[in-house]
Write a structure and sequence with these properties.
Blueprint lengths: L3 E5 L17 H18 L4 E4 L3 H11 L7 E4 L9 H14 L5 E5 L3 H10 L12 E5 L7 E6 L1 H7 L1
Helix pairs in contact: 1-2, 3-4
Length: about 160
């Protein structure tokens, strides 16, 4: 069962007043919408979408949320910024899952953190490089290593169409 999805934000503008204020491009919006549709078709609905507070991740998370049911909640999580610590975030997630072990969670963050999170949750040396809007699906249980189930990018979706 996939209960944890780690996603990199969609393509963002190269420049803004600050890195935190970079917005999605029209391609980024289109790619995220494709991934949102695919995720719901393949894995159904999620309980939470947790996003970095940066603009591009918030925009990505809101597009993903639009394809979810009304019970899905969007939360901004400061520990999902690009330079955050994957091990600390895993501890945070484990505490949340202790109170709701069947929760299904989509994380929206940045490189390099998304790569480090995959390695942390699957306890492997494999830290994949994510393209914009790419996501990785993991079967995760706090007391065990997670199992990487699937990795999907918009390029792979185009090949499947």
């Amino acid at each position: 069962m996939v209960n944890l999805v780690i996603m990199r934000h969609g393509e963002a503008e190269p420049m803004a007043a600050s890195d935190q204020l970079r917005s999605l491009t029209s391609k980024g919006v289109n790619d995220v919408n494709q991934m949102a549709t695919w995720l719901v078709q393949q894995y159904g609905h999620f309980d939470w979408i947790w996003s970095s507070p940066y603009l591009r991740t918030q925009q990505t998370a809101e597009l993903m949320l639009a394809k979810q049911t009304d019970s899905c909640q969007l939360e901004l999580v400061p520990d999902l910024t690009p330079d955050a610590d994957a091990a600390s975030f895993q501890s945070f997630l484990d505490v949340c899952l202790a109170s709701k072990p069947d929760a299904r969670i989509l994380l929206v963050s940045h490189m390099p953190l998304v790569s480090f999170l995959v390695a942390q949750f699957t306890q492997t040396d494999h830290a994949p490089v994510f393209t914009p809007a790419q996501l990785v699906c993991i079967d995760y249980k706090p007391e065990h290593n997670g199992q990487l189930v699937q990795s999907v990018s918009t390029d792979k979706l185009a090949l499947l169409s």
